[in-house]
Amino acid sequence: MLKAFSAARKYIPRRIKYLLRKPTPPTTAAPFAGPVVVLGSAPKSQKPIGLDATYRIISVNASQLALQSWDIDAPDITLMGYNEIEGTNTSAVEVRRVLAGKRTGALYVLAWRHGRERLEAGLKAIGYGCNEAHIVDRYQRIALLHKVSGRLNLELDAETKCSNGIIAVLFALYNGATAVIISGINPHSAGHVYNGVNLARKHVRMDAETLARLVSLGYPIYTADPHVSEEIGLPLWQGDDHIDSKTKIASERVRT
């Protein structure tokens, strides 16, 4: 009872601060005009059917390692957690090891608190290049989920946050993707493609709930991974000729 009361007291000022700031979700330089692949780091992933130059690719943290087997040098966009730049835990250290010497088109760093100069120094230390770097604060992240799903989640604790992979799905939808094909994202999996330590995944419940909500709202979300389609019920991507017209309408709705 006391724990619930304390959480409620924290919720009220955070909600007021969010409403006063009126943040806008992060945007791309130009809206997407076709399918977008969101690539996560689950140990198993598949190259989407029909993938060509008309698709855009968003990688999450160090998931771009899988692109080597797709004969693609770099993703168009990378979403990265703030901890991956300077964190000392096993996952962050492995991310930096994998990204050393690689690059992306546009980099979006989530919840970075230390200023652009320190971010640029961190990227230089890793040896990770990009054409442009953006800092996405916590309120922009909240606004993204709110705008796309209609759900206001103030992220009061780790269990109520979505993973960066799901944030990437929301980002793609908000910025005009005609379809979002996830590969290497499975809320029920453990481990990462870029290391062998089999780390448990966080945000399992929230990720599954958010994906289910987006599908129920009619958004064009698919998976390229047959086992994920079976486990969580997402439609399996069959190519852009199979996009349902109703889901196209849902995708357009979020940008108005």
Helical percentage: 25-40%
Q: SSE order, as H and E?
A: HEEEHHEHEHHEHEHH
Adjacency order of strands in the biggest sheet: 5-4-3-2-1-6-7
Which overall shape is indicated by the principal axes computed on the Cα atoms?
globular
Number of helices: 9
Count all strands and give the number.
7
* Low confidence ranges: 191-198
What Rg, in angstroms, do the CA atoms define? Answer: 18 Å
What is the overall pLDDT average? 85
> What fraction of the residues are assigned to beta strands by DSSP?
15-25%
Instruction: Give me the secondary-structure category.
Output: alpha/beta
Provide a descriptive summary of the structure in words.
- This protein has 256 residues and is of the alpha/beta class.
- The chain contains nine helices and seven strands.
- The protein has helices at 2-21, 83-86, 90-99, 116-126, 138-149, 164-174, 204-216, 226-232, 245-253, and strands at residues 35-39, 56-60, 77-81, 103-110, 129-136, 179-183, 221-223.
- A seven-stranded parallel β-sheet has the order 5-4-3-2-1-6-7, sandwiched between helices.
- Strand 6, helix 7 and strand 7 form a beta-alpha-beta unit.
- Helix 5 packs across helix 6.
- The longest helix is centred in the N-terminal third of the chain and has 20 residues, at 2-21.
- It is globular.
- 39% of the residues are buried.
- Mean pLDDT is 85; it is low at 191-198.
